[in-house]
Specification:
Largest sheet: 4 strands, antiparallel
Number of helices: 9
Number of domains: 2
Oligomer: single chain
Low-confidence stretches: none
Order of helices and strands: HEHEHEHEHHHHH
Length: 293
């Protein structure tokens, strides 16, 4: 009950009107930044698992479909007899056309646009087979074969995603620093407004820690209320962005929805911000009182 007692009229300050909304804006940006980091990390991990250790064999077509089928059988035989290969699958014409629809349209056929025969190859874990070695084996049987090694562009993609993650983390830290700066400014303003009342409390024996607890409790309440508002604004926004992402083609953007742990961490962000506000306010008051009084 003594801790809940307040001898300063902090609830009547004008700062109480705009500070929760400012913290709500900060929490909104924090939730979006953290969700963005989670999504980028999940995307990079999923692409890494799905693409690393896989290759695509391309068989350049000729004008004779019968010969192309014979060439395809020869290539598949080489793949089947290679001990380093775990799985291979020849893509049919309809699947190739479906993959090309976003760029060339749906009204195409193999007669209008000669399509190569694609074979999706998955290597066994920890195998040492490289694209150059596999290409050499296949070229001995057919010179019209090429191989697309996914690891080449995957490494560039992962590095780009890691760079964006670092930028998002820097944004997260800047938002935290901006929140701390805002609490420091508003707390010092409150000290100036209630300076005379604080001097009276000192005269009657109040300690600095007692006064600091009152400002800390006010910052905790305002931070928690503003954080909840920011979270309530961020969650529908994340749901809308997730819905839009799911509506895209799975070949353009993999399904990397946030898991229960991610959502749990997002929901505790308002509590973390309110605790930071409380500690910042208490330290600010203690240091200010040590210098002035």
């Amino acid at each position: 009950m003594i801790w809940l007692r307040s001898d300063l009229p902090l609830s009547q300050d004008r700062l109480n009107y705009f500070l929760p909304w400012l913290i709500a804006f900060m929490v909104f940006l924090l939730v979006m930044a953290v969700a963005f980091i989670f999504t980028l990390h999940a995307t990079a991990s999923k692409w890494d698992r799905g693409v690393r250790g896989s290759m695509t064999v391309q068989l350049i077509p000729t004008d004779d479909e019968v010969i192309d089928e014979q060439r395809l059988d020869v290539v598949l035989t080489v793949l089947a007899t290679s001990p380093e290969i775990q799985r291979y699958e020849s893509m049919d014409e309809s699947r190739l056309i479906r993959l090309l629809e976003p760029w060339v349209g749906a009204a195409i056929s193999n007669n209008e646009l000669p399509l190569p025969r694609l074979i999706d190859v998955e290597l066994k874990p920890k195998t040492g087979l490289t694209a150059e070695e596999l290409l050499q084996r296949l070229s001995e049987k057919d010179s019209g074969v090429s191989i697309d090694d996914h690891r080449v562009w995957l490494n560039h993609l992962v590095r780009m995603i890691e760079t964006i993650e670092v930028v998002a983390l820097l944004v997260f830290l800047l938002i935290i620093l901006a929140t701390v700066g805002t609490i420091i400014f508003t707390t010092r303003t409150g000290l100036s407004i209630h300076r005379e009342a604080i001097e009276v409390l000192h005269l009657i024996g109040a300690q600095d820690s007692y006064i600091a607890r009152q400002f800390a409790r006010r910052a905790l309440g305002l931070g928690l209320s503003g954080g909840i508002i920011g979270l309530l604004l961020a969650l529908p926004t994340l749901w809308l962005l997730s819905h839009l992402a799911h509506s895209l083609d799975e070949f353009l953007l993999p399904d990397v929805g946030l898991g229960p742990l991610h959502w749990g961490l997002l929901t505790v962000l308002p509590l973390g911000v309110s605790l930071i506000s409380m500690v910042t306010a208490k330290i600010t008051v203690l240091r200010a009182l040590e210098r002035v009084l």
